[in-house]
Amino acid sequence: MSCLCSGNPESLLVCNGFKDGEYISLALVARKLALNTVIVLEQEEELDLVIEFSKKLCIRPVIGVRAKLRTKHSGHFGSTSGEKGKFGLTTTQIVRVVRKLEQVGMLDCLQLLHFHIGSQIPSTALLADGVGEAAQIYCELVRLGAHMQVVDIGGGLGIDYDGSKSTDSDISVGYSLEEYAAAVVQAVQYVCDRKSTKHPIICSESGRAIVSHHSVLIFEAVSSSVYEAPALSTVTLQYLVEGLPDEARADYNNLYSAAIRGDHDTCLLYTDQLKQRCVDQFKQGSLGIEQLAAVDGLCELVSKAIGAADPVRTYHVNLSVFTSIPDFWGIGQLFPIVPIHRLDERPSVRGVLSDLTCDSDGKIDKFIGGESSLLLHELKGEGGGGRYYMGMFLGGAYEEALGGLHNLFGGPTVVRVSQSDGPHSFAVTRAVPGPSCGDVLRVMQHEPELMFETLKHRAEEFIHQHEDDDSLLNAAALANGLARSFNNMPYLVSASSCCLTAINNNNFYCCSGDDFHAVAADSASGEEEQWSYCCA
Fold it and tell me: What pTM, to 2 d.p., does this model score?
C-alpha cells in the first residue's frame, strides 16, 4: 500500500493467500484510499467475510477468484497446481460464488481471474495448455454476467539456472521471455476470439524471474583439506611390515606381488583388505596408532600410484548453508557457484564446499551440469590459507528470506549495489553488517546484556585475586574484549580481512578491522547507521 501511494494509479494490488477479517478490512481500506486493490478468493468461505466487511465499511470491493485448473505441472514446483492443489476454487465453487454475488447485487464486483500452474514452468506447451483452460473459465464468467477485466496468470516464468534450456529439469526452462509472453497472449487471444469476448488485461506475478538475479552471495574459502600420504622410507616400510600380525603381513605380501605384476584391480582388493584388517587389529588393541597411520599412508600411496585416489579436496567456506543457501539443503536446488577472482589463472583442482556449521548436511557437493565437485584454484598462503572468494548467483528467490539461525549463524553482511553513470557503471549505496552474536543470542531468547555482566563480574573477581598496578587496566581491557565478542558477527574474521565498513574517501570505499568493530557496536546498540554514497 505504501509503495503504491507514489506509483502508477493503475497498478494492481492483488491480495492472495488465506484471509481473516483483519486482512479483508485492510484490503478494503486500501480500496478506499484509491489504490487498485483486488481481493482474490482462495477459499469459498472468504466471500462471506468480504460481503460482511464491505457492507460494514460501506466500501465496494473489487473481487477476483483463483481457479484450480485441471492442467498440472508435474515438476517439483507443481504441487500447488491441479484439482488437489493447495489454493483456489473448483469450477463448482466458482459457480456458487457467482450465484451468491448475483443474489447480493455484487456480481459487477467480480473482475479478475487468477490461477497458478506452478513455479518453474518448463515448457510453453504446458503454459499454453493451462492459460487456454483459464481463458475458457474467464469467458464463461463474462457470459454469466461478471464484469471481468483481468486475467492474472500467477507465477511460473522460470529461470534457466544451469544454462541447458531443458524442458525436463526443475532447474531449467526451454523458452525465452519473449516466447513465454507470446504463448500467454496467443492462448488468451485464441479463446477470446472464438467466444467473441473482449480481450482482457493480462498481468503476471513472476516473482522468481524478477528477483532471482538481484542477489549475489559472496563468500570466502578459509582453508582446504586433502589427505597427504606420509613419506615411507625403506627402513620405515620394513619396520611396519615386521610389526604387522601374520594375517595382515600376508595381505601385504599379496599386495606387493600384485604391484609387481601390474595388476591394479588386485592391488585395490588387497589394499582395502589390509586396511580393514589393520583397523580391526587397532580396535582390539594389538596395533599401535603409529603403525595404523603408516598403513593408511601406504594404502594412499598405492591408490595414487595406480590412479585410484580421490583427488577432490574439501574447501572450508565462511558461511552457513542453512542460512544462505537453504534450498540446496531442503530441496536439492542447484545454483551457479564460481570463483570471482584469479580469473586469469587456470583452476587446477577439484573441490567440494563445507560450511562452518557442525551439521553433516552443511556441505555443497552437487553442482550445475551434474558435477559432484567444482573446478577451483589452489589456495595461496601458509597452510592452504589465503583469501579466495567465490560467488553464488541467482539466489534472489528466495534464499535470504528462507534462511534461518541453524547453529546460531545469522545472515551475512548486506551491500546494496545499484546501476550508475560512473565509469564502472555501479554505485554502492548501502552496507549493513549482519546480525552480531548478541543479536543472534537475543533471537534465541537469551539475554546477552546479562550474560556480559556475569562474565564482566567474573573477570573483575579474577583480576582482583592477582592485584597489581595494572589490575584495573587489565580488567577494563578484558571487559572490552568480552563486549567486542558479543558485538562481532558469528562468522570468521581474520585480522587482515577487509571488513565491509563504508568510509567515503575521495569516492572510494575503504575499510579496516577497527572500523568494523565500531560499526558492529553501533549496530548492536540499535543506533541508526549512517552510510556514504559511493559511485564507481
Answer: 0.80
